[in-house]
Amino acid sequence: MSIKRNAVWNLAGTGVPMLAGLALIPFTLNRLGSEAFGVLTLVWGLIGYFSVFDMGVGRALTVQLSQLAASGRVSDTGPLLRSGMFLTLAAGLLGVALVWLLAPGLSSHWLKISPALQDDARLAFLVAAVGVLPTTLASGLRGALEGLDRFAASNLSRIVLGVWMMALPAWSVYFHGPRLEVVALYLVLGRCLVVLAMVAQLRGHLFSTGEAVARRHFQALWNYGFWVTVTGIVGPLMVYGDRFFVSAAVGADQLPLYAIPQDVLLRLLLIPMALTGALLPKLAAMGATEVAAAYRQTYRRVALAMLAICVLAAALAYPALLLWISAEFARSALPVVLVLCAGVWVNSLASVPYTLLHARGNPRLTALFHLAELLVYLLALWQLSSHYGLLGAALAWLARVALDWLLLHVAVRRLYGV
Predict the structure, then answer these.
(1) 286: helix, strand or coil
(2) pTM for this one?
(3) Where are the domains of the chain?
(4) Helix locations, 148-214, DSSP H
(5) Sign of the CA dihedral with 138 first, then 144, 147, and 151 last
(6) Are 221 and 84 in contact (CB under 8 A)?
(7) pLDDT tens digits for 148-189?
(8) Read out DSSP for 369-395?
(9) Between the CA of residue 202 and those of 76, 141, 153, 205, 244, what are the distances in Å?
């Protein structure tokens, strides 16, 4: 199990889609218009956010499959994987129903979407609801691939999916015009094809002989996955949920000034995520001394590398937005970008203790931290975005990630002495 090799694959899995976004977002934005593109970012957010309905099975499978491999109990791989995918399927169907029920309210009442766009938005949200199921299945399957140390296969599927998520909207608006429901349909079909490819990669385990599922695996996956799910519900809400607050506070037409820089800058987190994602299954199988050494080394690398990257991003933000989109967009978005750069660095630091807690079987603590942060964050977000607009939303996010880092850092020091 090579951490460097797996980290490189993780980096490619998120870096290549980011490059596709940089190339294609200006075209899609110009063809759709500012408000419709704002709704598209909400569709992306809905499909991405509701990957939480894998019930934490993806991360649980990564940890437990790596532990099975370390202990030599490979005969349990098939039953564990099938049990996990059964849970994911059931939970994904629940997610479809929930988003379907939310779609009319999102398009007509809760967000400041203009009347002329509300019907298109409602249809797009309904199509996005169907996309929750392949999203959750893909999350579980990806966790299984990484638990089996097949990071190349996992990230090839992520590359294809990420590029499609950027390319298909551009394809759709070019051939079908600015029809949001057609864009959403392309996004869902792309995810379905990726799921089929991942099933083919895991067919040897999914369709192996032996017991189909096992109650002991259901219980183990649920005990771990429940708390990952709590984090999965609360965590993305505190990363992407601010878009809905911003839209409600200042209008969907202003949302691209916040959502586009946020999307790009959050992609910088692919660097610590690539390293910690590769480290997760290894930490799960390590002894205490090895864990402490690996943690310290990873923390130092992430802190120094991300500080340099975030400072560079802040310095290049204005000229990059000027060339990429427009001078007016660059001027309006720059204050938001600078605050988000600081938040990305702090959030990158938090990814290291977060990963250690999950690898050592303690997702409950991270979930409780996120629950404690949520109410404070939402109140601060609403107040700051209502009074200071986009900059207020960015400041609320920075404060939240700083609190998250502090709580995780203290927890790791007290529990593991590192």
Answers:
(1) coil
(2) 0.67
(3) 3-416
(4) 151-176, 180-201, 203-206
(5) negative
(6) yes
(7) 888 788 878 888 888 888 899 999 999 998 899 999 999 999
(8) HHHHHHHHHHHHHHHHHHHHHHHHHHH
(9) 15, 8, 10, 6, 37
